[in-house]
Design a protein that fits this description.
The protein has 197 residues and is mainly α. It has one domain. Helix content is 63%, strand content 0%. The chain has helices at 7-17, 21-40, 47-56, 72-76, 83-91, 105-125, 137-145, 155-165, 169-196. Helix 2 packs antiparallel against helix 3 (47-56) and helix 3 (47-56) crosses helix 5 (83-91).
Length: 197
Amino acid sequence: MKTSVTRQQALDLLMKYNKEPFHLLHGLTVEGVMGWYAREMGYGEEEEFWAMAGLLHDVDFEQFPEEHCQKAPELLAEIGAEEELVHAICSHGYGLCSQVKPEHEMEKIMFAADELTGLIGAAVRMRPSKSVMDLEVSSLKKKYKDKRFAAGCSRDVIASGAENLGWSLDELFEKTILAMRSCEEKINREMEEFEGK
């Protein structure tokens, strides 16, 4: 899978429809996580596509929360996004706000990892270091089991995402922590740049 959309086009589109720093941070996080997964899972030649889907997966969420994943195709058409990219982006909301089912391994990973990055991000904000670098799976499992912690992060989505991949929760947790570690520094730099503008 390839995309003709450039990262700059994707960033411009994301920032056109998302003004909240939190939403921008989330897009950059899922971009970095998906790029790591592409390399890790043997899809290195598709890394750009995987990362692009991650960056743009919530493009319509801030301005059109009631139409999340329904409005995305219209917005993505502005940058000429391929059908495969639109499908991948819409599939991350399967069963929640979309009828587009995750089929490719990349789509299944994004479905599982998207929600989990939110939980990990919330856990990281509680840590003295404010970094994922010293977050361990055991600590994340405690947060996952505490239903009051980051209550907006659906445990059902995370669990069914792991199941769809044939992974244990521990495996999904460990991989996604490693993925977030791989891009934390780059994301912090980019967020500083955006906030300085």
